[in-house]
Structures are given as structure tokens and as C-alpha cells.
């Protein structure tokens, strides 16, 4: 297969002109160099842009880390403030009393202290205090609090100081009748005076507040920043539908677990830059992802412009190459064009080459050869013209006696029937007919004159056949001015009557019409006679000279006359249905009687 392609390419190359070979080779070489330069430039610049993107994204991740560290350190400080608050220490240290009002006042005092601490920092979503008496105090606006303190009481039982951060989870409370996704700090609560464990403090931060810290960081129109834990579960993401989903099966997850920095991965049919940074406080990994096409889109624009400029240079180089090659191959192209003109029949051409080398000698001999050929062709054309005139004269001598014989036969028939008035009419019509035929010496007349001749002829037959034959004429007035050979329609009408209507039972009808169709004059002779079978139609134009006396020759002669005067593209086309009738279509050029073809 490859061998065949190679052969075809070489064959095509060898068939090209010298000018085209020089131009094609130069254009191919220059285009290849520009394409290679564009590819290498794109790769190098893309590598630089990706490196810059990694550096910028890593810097953004570092900024996120610093923001998170500030938030969580402040959270621990505010937790410490809460558990060392004098009011909280005093009330929680005292056991509940039997006085409900006193217990309520204590609860309200603790809640007010917690509210004051929570309200001073917007990142604190809730403060909840659980004591060992199973009392729960909160910072206000909370409801449906689930007591989860027992787990941490047991966890911190053997340590004086206990503090732990819990990854993102659904909140164990409702705030303003809504659940939250929160990151929570749990800290053991001891008496500042005696060191006796008093309870547990929970400080919760809404995950949305964490996500808001980096949601506005721009790393591309479709780039994303999010946080996952060590198991690959999403702990924070501005796209809330991604929260708690897992990336553990994604191709890049094993890499971000053990690496910091950036790397390109192919995912979902496109290349994506993944940049990661660890956050040890929670065993988190902060990840930034941005499609490569966004990083390199400016580079793609530059590359397209580079190709555009390169195309202009290639075009300019091709034009210069063509001009240089043309100056070299101009004499050869002149000979080629002149030979082609001669092949197409133009014998008036001459090679005008000034050089006196071999090409000049060849041009001189070529001019002699063309001159001799032209003289020979003119002699042949003159002989053919005379031959056509002789053939037309013979055809005309066949048509006129044939019609006159049929008309005189009709007059004899009318005389035998004692139809003297009809005899007079026929003789008058015959006189009018021949006056129209002979009034102009040219064998080519206007279609309007040909229609008048045909109407006169049908008038003669109408007198003989009476109501047995009817005829109509339907012509577009625009066709009247165009040329027709004399006695074009009459033989066709005659043929329709004697071979189509004569043997028909009932009344016969002939319709003669003309239109302009497709830039040609088209005439129709339509009869409702006996028609012909297809093999008869096929044989109509195959009648030899020896058969003229035995068969109808009006159609064949008329077709030949049209072709002799107007060319082989014009003539007759016959369509017939046996038992239904025949349509003869005549196609003529649009040659006006006073001018040339339109």
C-alpha cells in the first residue's frame, strides 16, 4: 500500500512542470521549517507558562495555608479565653441547686459569657460547653444539640490538658433551624483553682467560612481550589456539591499524598495541572487544579499569529519563486501554450521567440508547419462546404416534387368527386404556398414565415379532408424573429397526416407550437394518430438512400438539413406511444433573422 502511494506521488511529481516543481519544493521546505519552529516555540513557551502557573498557584496555596493557620490559632486562643472565663469557671464549678430560677440564672450567665466570646469573632459559628453534670451551655441561637461529650471525656480521661481538632462533619446542632458543615475544636475544661475536670468545650467553625478564604483566588476561569483529608475525602470546597466526595481513585491522588509542587495529569480527555501543598494541623492537602489550555491560551493565540505571519512569508516567498522560475521557463511555457492552441484548432497562432538557440530554431520550424496545416485545412473546409451545398440542393429537389405530387393527387381526387369549388380553393392555396416558398431566395427564413407556409399547407389539406382533420397553432410571439430553414414544419406535418392520422379511426388533430426553452428555440408537432412502437422510432433515422422510395424520409431529411445549417447540437427528437400519437420536438439556436446568436 505504501509502495503504491509512493509511486503515485512520484508519478504526480514527475508530471508537474519545471515551474511548479521549483515552486512546490521551495514552498514545502519553507512551510516545514516554519511549522517546526512554531512547534518548538510553542513547547518551550508552554513549558515556561506552566512553570509560572505552578509557582503562582503554589504561592496562592501558601497564602491559603497562612490564612487557615491564623483562623485555627485564633480559635484555640478563644477556646482558652472561654474556659478561663471567671463567670464560666465559677458557675460550672458549683453543683446544680434545687431552685429552678437560680439554675436558670446560672445557665443564662454562662450563655451570655459564651455569646460575648463567639460574637467577637465572625469565624466562630458556635460555642458549646458540656459539664460533668450533663448540663449543656451554648453561645445562643442553637437548637437540637446532640451531647457528644462522653467520647471526649473518655479520650481525655488520663491527661490534664486535652485538645483535638475534628475534620469537617455535619454539625451536632441546628443554628437558625439549619444544619451546618463544621470543623470543630474540642478542649478539656478544668477548674482554674483546683485543676478538677469540669467539662468539655466545643468551638465550631462553619466550613463555608473556611472555603470563603480561598474562593476568590483566581487560578483560571475553570480552575479550582479545594482541601482533602488524608483519605481523599473533600473537607472543604467552594463547590458544595463536591463536599464529602472522594478523590481517592483519581489518578493524581497518590501523587498529592506524598508530593508538594505541580504536575500535569491527563484526565477526562484533557491535560490538567495539579498543584498541592500539605497542611499538617489536620493532615490535609490543599489542591489547586487548572486545565493546561487555560494556562497556554495566550500562547495559542501567539502561535496562531505566528502561523499567520509565517503563511504571509511563505506566500511572499512563493510569489518570488514563481517570478524567478517563470523567467527561466517562459520560453517553454510559450511553446506549450501555442501547441495547445493548435490542438484546440486555432491555426492563426505563431511562436514569437527572439532567441537564436535550439528553442528559437524549433519555433521557426513550428511556424512553418502550422502555416502549411492551416492552408490544408482551409482547402478541406471549402470542399466540405461545397459538398453540403450540393447535398442540400439534392434534398430540396426531393422535398418540393414530393409535396407537389401529393397536392396534385388531392386536386385530382376532388375533381373526381365534382368538388369544383374545393379544387379552386386548393389551387389558390397551392399558389399561395409556392409564393411563400419561392418569394425569398434564401433557404433560411424567419419562423414567422415558416408558420405562414405551414398554415397554407394545412389549409390545402383541410379542404380535402374536411372535419376529419383539425389543427391548432400555439406560438410564443418571441420565437417569430428567430431563424428556421425553409420547409421545416411542412414535412413534419405531412408525415403526421400520412403516417399518423390517415389510418386513425375518428377525428385527427395536429398541434404546432413553439417556445423559448433553455436558451433555445423549441418547436413541437404533436398528433393524436396511431403512433409508433419504440423499434420503429429507433429506426427512423437509420433509413439508407436506397430505402427513400419505400419508406417515409421526411423526418430524416429534415433532421439532416437542421444539422447542416445549425450544427450537430440541433435537430429532431421523436417521442411516440403506439395507439396514442407522436410528438416531434425541433431544437433550433436563437439566431435572429437580422443578426447573430443571442
UniProtKB/TrEMBL annotation:
Coiled coil: none annotated. It holds the Pfam family His_kinase. The keyword Kinase applies. Its EC number is 2.7.13.3. Residues 485-592 form the Histidine kinase domain. It catalyses: ATP + protein L-histidine = ADP + protein N-phospho-L-histidine. Residues 326-378 form the HAMP domain. It is a multi-pass membrane protein. PROSITE patterns: HAMP, HIS_KIN. GO terms for molecular function: protein histidine kinase activity. Keywords: ATP-binding, Cell membrane, Kinase, Membrane, Nucleotide-binding, Phosphoprotein, Transferase, Transmembrane, Transmembrane helix, Two-component regulatory system. It is found in: Cell membrane. The chain crosses the membrane at residues 22-42, 306-325. Its main location: membrane. This is histidine kinase.
Amino acid at each position: 500500500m505504501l509502495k503504491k502511494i509512493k509511486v503515485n506521488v512520484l508519478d504526480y511529481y514527475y508530471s508537474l512542470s519545471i515551474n511548479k516543481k521549483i515552486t512546490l519544493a521551495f514552498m514545502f521546505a519553507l512551510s516545514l521549517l516554519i511549522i517546526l519552529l512554531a512547534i518548538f516555540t510553542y513547547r518551550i513557551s508552554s513549558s515556561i507558562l506552566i512553570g509560572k502557573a505552578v509557582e503562582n498557584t503554589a504561592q496562592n496555596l501558601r497564602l491559603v495555608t497562612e490564612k487557615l493557620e491564623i483562623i485555627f490559632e485564633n480559635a484555640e486562643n478563644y477556646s482558652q479565653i472561654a474556659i478561663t472565663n471567671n463567670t464560666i469557671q465559677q458557675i460550672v464549678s458549683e453543683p446544680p441547686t434545687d431552685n429552678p430560677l437560680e439554675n436558670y440564672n446560672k445557665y443564662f450567665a454562662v450563655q451570655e459569657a459564651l455569646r460575648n466570646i463567639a460574637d467577637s469573632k465572625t469565624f466562630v459559628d458556635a460555642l458549646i460547653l458540656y459539664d460533668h453534670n450533663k448540663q449543656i451551655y451554648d453561645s445562643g441561637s442553637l437548637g437540637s444539640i446532640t451531647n457528644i461529650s462522653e467520647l471526649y471525656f473518655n479520650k481525655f480521661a488520663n491527661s490534664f490538658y486535652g485538645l483535638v481538632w475534628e475534620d469537617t462533619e455535619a454539625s451536632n446542632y441546628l443554628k437558625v433551624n439549619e444544619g451546618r458543615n463544621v470543623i470543630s475544636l474540642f478542649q478539656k475544661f478544668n477548674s482554674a483553682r483546683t485543676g478538677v475536670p469540669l467539662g468539655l468545650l466545643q468551638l465550631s467553625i462553619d466550613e463555608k467560612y473556611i472555603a470563603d478564604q480561598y474562593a476568590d483566588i483566581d487560578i483560571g476561569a475553570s480552575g479550582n481550589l479545594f482541601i482533602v483529608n488524608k483519605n481523599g475525602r473533600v473537607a472543604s470546597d467552594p463547590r458544595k456539591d463536591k463536599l464529602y466526595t472522594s478523590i481517592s481513585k483519581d489518578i493524581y491522588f497518590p501523587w498529592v499524598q506524598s508530593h508538594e509542587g505541580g504536575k500535569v495529569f491527563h484526565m477526562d480527555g484533557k491535560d490538567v495541572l495539579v498543584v498541592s501543598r500539605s497542611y499538617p494541623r489536620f493532615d490535609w492537602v490543599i489542591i489547586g487544579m487548572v486545565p493546561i489550555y487555560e494556562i497556554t491560551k495566550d500562547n495559542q493565540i501567539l502561535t496562531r499569529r505566528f502561523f499567520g505571519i509565517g503563511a504571509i512569508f511563505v506566500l511572499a516567498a512563493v510569489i518570488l519563486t514563481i517570478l524567478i522560475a517563470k523567467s527561466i521557463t517562459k520560453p517553454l511555457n510559450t511553446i506549450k501554450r501555442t501547441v495547445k492552441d493548435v490542438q484546440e484548432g486555432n491555426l492563426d497562432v505563431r511562436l514569437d521567440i527572439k532567441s537564436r538557440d535550439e528553442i528559437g530554431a524549433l519555433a521557426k520550424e513550428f511556424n512553418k508547419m502550422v502555416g502549411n496545416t492551416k492552408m490544408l485545412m482551409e482547402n478541406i473546409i471549402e470542399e466540405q462546404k461545397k459538398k453540403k451545398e450540393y447535398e442540400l440542393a439534392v434534398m430540396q429537389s426531393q422535398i418540393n416534387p414530393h409535396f407537389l405530387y401529393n397536392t396534385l393527387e388531392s386536386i385530382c381526387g376532388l375533381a373526381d368527386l365534382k368538388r369544383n369549388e374545393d379544387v379552386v380553393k386548393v389551387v389558390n392555396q397551392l399558389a399561395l404556398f409556392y409564393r411563400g416558398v419561392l418569394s425569398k431566395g434564401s433557404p433560411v427564413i424567419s419562423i414567422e414565415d415558416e408558420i405562414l407556409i405551414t398554415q397554407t399547407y394545412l389549409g390545402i389539406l383541410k379542404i380535402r379532408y374536411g372535419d376529419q382533420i383539425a389543427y391548432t397553432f400555439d406560438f410564443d410571439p418571441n420565437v417569430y424573429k428567430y431563424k428556421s430553414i425553409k420547409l421545416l414544419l411542412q414535412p413534419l406535418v405531412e408525415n403526421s397526416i400520412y403516417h399518423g392520422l390517415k389510418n386513425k379511426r375518428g377525428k385527427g388533430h395536429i398541434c404546432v407550437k413553439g417556445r423559448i426553452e433553455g436558451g433555445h428555440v423549441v418547436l413541437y408537432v404533436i398528433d393524436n394518430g396511431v403512433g409508433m412502437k419504440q423499434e420503429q422510432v429507433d429506426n427512423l433515422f437509420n433509413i439508407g438512400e436506397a430505402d427513400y422510395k419505400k419508406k417515409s424520409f421526411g423526418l430524416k431529411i429534415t433532421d439532416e438539413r437542421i444539422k447542416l445549417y445549425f450544427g450537430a447540437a440541433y435537430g429532431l427528437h421523436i417521442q411516440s406511444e403506439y395507439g396514442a400519437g407522436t410528438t416531434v420536438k425541433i431544437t433550433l439556436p436563437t439566431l435572429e433573422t437580422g443578426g447573430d446568436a443571442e
